[in-house]
């Protein structure tokens, strides 16, 4: 049973998060320079089966695609080429950066930590994955 990997794509840095094998818990994995993400995931896949990628889909408030969407689509194509047997889903990531920053404030993180883009990207990826899990969960009675 594989895990899901969430990707919060950035031009310079990309945050990653993963689920447990039961796909109940989303937790931060790491933040990497964007060009190192696919090699990292290739190494990760050797140890742990990846069942699905969840790539953040940034939207503007009016619902239109953000400026970075074209670059994300190019990254998704690279991801498909590198991992042709792994499904790729998209998840709305509006406000995840603000929510990540707010969560750092609420947990009492120091100002230096709150300004660390790598920490924010990893938390954002975790929020994307949590949102994906919640929106795709089945209600069992």
How would you describe this protein?
The protein is an alpha/beta fold and 141 residues long. The chain has a single domain (3-135), classed as Nucleotidyltransferase, domain 5. Helices cover 42% and strands 25% of the residues. It has five helices and five strands, in the order E-E-E-H-E-H-E-H-H-H. The protein has helices spanning 37-47, 69-82, 96-106, 111-114, 117-135, and strands at 3-8, 13-19, 26-33, 50-57, 87-92. Helix 3 (96-106) crosses helix 5 (117-135). The radius of gyration is 15 Å and the shape is globular. The two termini are 24 Å apart. The model has no long low-confidence stretch (mean pLDDT 84).
